[in-house]
Amino acid sequence: MDPRGKWNDKYKERLNELMVPAPNTRLKNLIPYLKGGTALDLACGLGGNSLFLAQLNYKVDAVDVSDVAVQFLQTLAENRKLSIQPRQCDLTDITALNYRNNSYDMVIITYYLDRTLFPLVKALIKENGYFFMETYYLSTSTENQTVSDQYKLQSGELLNEFKDWNILFYEENQLDGRQTIFCKKV
Ligand SMILES: C[S@@+](CC[C@H](N)C(=O)[O-])C[C@H]1O[C@@H](n2cnc3c(N)ncnc32)[C@H](O)[C@@H]1O
């Protein structure tokens, strides 16, 4: 099944459970850095992180392949009068994105891995802007995790990918098998 159909089915199920989307815990801890501006949430899902950033005075562009997720976020943002612009888009075709370089104060990706997005992310972020990413990595204690290895980072990968940036937070949690980075473009 194509990613749009697969994720639409998952989100339809989740919405039946009336789950309220929550922001990423490590992102929440970074509040002192989050001063508002423009933000882009790539593969936003139901938009827990977008909602969190919008409440902190960010004007958020949110992108996901699932139109179910995008529609859900659109309605929630309208009801709460939050500045979020959700958009259905397949990130494997980034030519369709058409965003301007150096236009975001913050770009965020959580639990979506497509390494071809890194050059785009680097170009879209303004000087002194921030990048936050968290997803699975190949941790020895999570070999039995249901997530396929093709969707996992190497150990230390984000640190190496953003080595020219100012790293403000980096963590590999071996038990949960997650890698998190928060860095600033210099
Ligand atoms: C594990 S979820 C993470 C959602 C959200 N970032 C979060 O942390 O809650 C992965 C997301 O990637 C989206 N996705 C999968 N393939 C995609 C693609 N080709 N283009 C855009 N989004 C995609 C899915 O629809 C889903 O919302």
Q: Which helices and strands appear, and what pairs or packs with what?
A:
Elements: H1 3-16, H2 25-28, E1 37-42, H3 48-55, E2 58-64, H4 67-79, E3 84-88, E4 104-110, H5 118-124, E5 125-136, H6 157-161, E6 166-173, E7 178-184
Parallel strand pairs: 1-2, 1-4, 2-3, 4-5
Antiparallel strand pairs: 5-7, 6-7
The protein binds S-adenosylmethionine (SAM).
Number of helices: 6
Low-confidence stretches: none
- In total, the number of domains comes to 1
How far is it from the N-terminal to the C-terminal residue, by CA?
A: 41 Å
Within CATH, the superfamily carries the name Vaccinia Virus protein VP39
Helix-strand pattern, N to C?
A: HHEHEHEEHEHEE
User: Beta-strand percentage?
Assistant: 25-35%
Q: State the shape.
A: globular
Task: Please state the second-level CATH architecture.
Answer: 3-Layer(aba) Sandwich
Q: How many individual β-strands?
A: 7
Q: What is the average of the pLDDT values? A: 94
Largest sheet: 7 strands, mixed
CATH topology category name: Rossmann fold
